[in-house]
Request: fold
Amino acid sequence: GAVVSQHPSRVICKSGTSVKIECRSLDFQATTMFWYRQFPKQSLMLMATSNEGSKATYEQGVEKDKFLINHASLTLSTLTVTSAHPEDSSFYICSARGNWEPLYNEQFFGPGTRLTVL
Amino acid sequence: SQKIEQNSEALNIQEGKTATLTCNYTNYSPAYLQWYRQDPGRGPVFLLLIRENEKEKRKERLKVTFDTTLKQSLFHITASQPADSATYLCALGSSDSNSGYALNFGKGTSLLVTP
Reply:
């Protein structure tokens, strides 16, 4: 149980276009989802915390107008990279927090989305 | 500022030996610490969680220790196998509900187990 999927797994786009990444919790409801970004050989950097039905909380230095997050249901959060540029190329990973004991603090990660902006 | 440090150099060990990975942190008082495994091009997979009031946790061939005085966690894989080769991430969490229980990750340590 506790499976998280991401779609697409890989996307290549032209500079200036927008890309939407979906994160779904398949067999549980996730009131809280997280979006991370990981550059090669670097740690996962938290971009934002997404709570169902409310605005996302962005980490310092992350542009909320560039990285739009929508968590409209208990099983789906989306990240839209608007007007993507080559420097946005990265590995984007979402996670969903377990909301049942004893896994209340555990996060279940999606498989990641590799974004390449040409 | 908060810092989480893991061995930056890759750890190479022989199959059957015990692998020990280190996670040190500063300027942080985590309520719990987690270890994840990450394979290339994949998302992290949860392995173990240990709380601040626990000294040691075991799961099959895995053992984690947590010393809040030293601000250090050790992650052991006994009887290591080539399939254990991966990057292992240490993550610290708070009990602060305002943060949504977000995790802070170290850079990870790459483990290579050779036959």
